Structure formats: structure tokens, C-alpha cells
């Protein structure tokens, strides 16, 4: 019995997908069909993978002879403004913020600053693994920076856009899918503070790049996932 575990309704973004066969984590590849007719393949590791749903509508997740429909919701529309009754202020009456000498514009700037600081904290301190991908018209270069802890059994997966001429390096594995060439690198250990750089040749084709995906295990054998 095949059991595909994924929410029936999700929002755009990364979603974890679990697959079990007779109660045990499955191995192999799952296939995902988008509302627009595109098909994607993702490898399972211990019965789990992550996928970035980037299109709203009905998706089909398949493994073997089993399949499940996943509905990706439309982007939330902005809520209509609620009209408030006009309150007539008495002359000389001011709010506590104005009495304190703080203008609304100053509050807005302070909130923007706090949001920027929170983003920087996430990117440069809390984020375990940072992944960047750059393309110069001839070569795709992927850089992985491990910031938090030693990792092992590392797998790095990228999907080269379809229609292009892909030159796969000798240290990588490649498999053809309907939507392009899946390229995978493996690394036994990725130490804390270590940078790992890989690349492959790419000429022509569509430039609709997908996020790079990393899977690894930490010292406690807990799976770590990261995306570009």
C-alpha cells in the first residue's frame, strides 16, 4: 500500500512530501504534474522530499500507481479597506504619539529598520546553510556555505533548465527528466565554516531556474534541508 502524505491545500512555496510503502519510508522518485502541464521529478530520501510549488491550481503528486491532488491557493488578495467613522477632534487635542514627539513617518521608518535587521539576522546568523547560484551565460556556479554545525551525507540537487546544452562535470550524477537535467553532487562531510563550490556548463535553453536543494544529516542524525 502506497501512502502519499502531503496537505491537500497549500500555499505557494516549499512543502514537505512524505511517501510510505506498507508503512515503511519509500525510496525512489516522485513525479509532480503542474496545472500548466509541466512535469517534475524529485528523489526521496528516507521517504521524504521538499518541493517548491510555484503555480496556483491543481497539482498531481504521483509515486508508482498512487497519486494525490494538491491544490495550490491563489495569492491572497489585498483586503478592502474598512471605512471608519469620522471623529471630530476638539481643538488642541492630540494623540499620545504626537505628545511624545513621535511622528507616524518615524514609526514607519523604525518598523522598516527592525524588519531589515530581522532579515539580516536570519540570513547571516540563524540560517544554517546559505546557497547561492550564479549564471554567466556559459556556466552555472553554486556556492554552499555551512554556518552552524558539521554535516555529513550531503546531497546537492539542481535542475538545469530544459532545452539547453548541459555539460555535466565528472564529480556529479545526472538524470534526464521531462523538465530538464537533474544534476546531483554528493559530499561525505561538510564542516562548520566550510564553503563548497560546484558548477556545470549550460548554453542556450530556457532560463527559468529552479531553487537548488540541499539535504544532509547532522551529528544527531537529524535531516537538514536548505534551498537557494
Summed up, what is this model?
The protein is mainly β and 228 residues long. It contains two helices and 18 strands.
CATH architecture descriptor of the largest domain: Sandwich
Oligomeric assembly = single chain
CATH class of the largest domain: Mainly Beta
- What Rg do the Cα atoms give? 23 Å
How many E strands? 18
The percent range for strand residues is over 45%
Order of helices and strands: EEEEEEEEEHHEEEEEEEEE
Instruction: List low-confidence stretches.
Output: 77-89, 121-126
Query: How many distinct folded domains?
Result: 2
**Percent in helix:** 10-25%
The residue-averaged pLDDT reads 81
State the distance separating the first and last CA atoms. Answer: 34 Å
Structure description:
With 228 residues, this protein is mainly beta. The chain folds into two domains: 2-72, Immunoglobulin-like (Sandwich); 126-227, Immunoglobulin-like. The chain is 12% helix and 50% strand. The chain is built from two helices and 18 strands. It has helices at residues 96-99, 104-126, and strands at residues 2-5, 9-10, 13-21, 24-25, 28-33, 39-44, 48-53, 57-63, 66-72, 129-135, 139-146, 151-161, 165-167, 173-177, 180-190, 195-203, 213-217, 223-227. The longest helix is centred in the middle third of the chain and has 23 residues, at 104-126. It starts with a strand and ends with a strand. 16% of the residues are buried.
Amino acid at each position: 500500500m502506497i501512502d502519499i502524505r502531503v496537505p491537500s491545500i497549500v500555499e505557494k512555496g516549499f512543502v514537505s512530501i512524505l511517501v510510505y510503502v506498507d508503512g515503511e519510508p519509500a525510496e525512489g522518485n516522485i513525479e509532480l504534474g503542474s496545472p500548466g502541464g509541466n512535469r517534475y521529478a524529485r528523489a526521496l530520501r528516507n521517504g521524504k522530499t521538499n518541493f517548491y510549488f510555484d503555480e496556483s491550481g491543481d497539482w498531481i503528486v504521483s509515486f508508482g500507481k498512487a497519486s494525490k491532488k494538491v491544490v495550490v491557493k491563489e495569492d491572497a488578495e489585498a483586503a478592502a479597506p474598512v471605512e471608519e467613522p469620522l471623529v471630530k477632534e476638539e481643538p488642541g487635542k492630540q494623540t499620545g504619539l504626537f505628545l511624545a514627539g513621535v511622528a507616524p513617518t518615524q514609526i514607519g521608518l523604525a518598523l522598516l529598520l527592525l524588519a531589515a535587521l530581522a532579515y539580516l539576522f536570519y540570513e547571516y546568523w540563524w540560517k544554517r546553510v546559505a546557497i547561492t547560484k550564479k549564471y554567466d551565460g556559459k556556466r552555472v556556479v553554486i556556492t554552499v556555505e555551512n554556518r552552524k554545525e558539521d554535516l555529513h551525507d550531503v546531497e546537492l540537487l539542481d535542475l538545469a533548465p530544459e532545452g539547453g546544452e548541459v555539460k555535466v562535470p565528472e564529480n556529479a550524477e545526472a538524470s534526464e527528466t521531462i523538465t530538464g537535467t537533474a544534476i546531483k553532487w554528493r559530499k561525505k562531510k561538510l564542516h562548520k565554516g566550510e564553503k563548497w563550490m560546484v558548477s556545470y556548463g549550460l548554453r542556450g535553453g530556457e532560463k527559468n531556474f529552479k531553487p537548488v536543494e540541499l539535504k544532509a544529516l547532522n551529528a544527531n542524525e537529524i535531516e537538514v534541508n536548505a534551498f537557494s
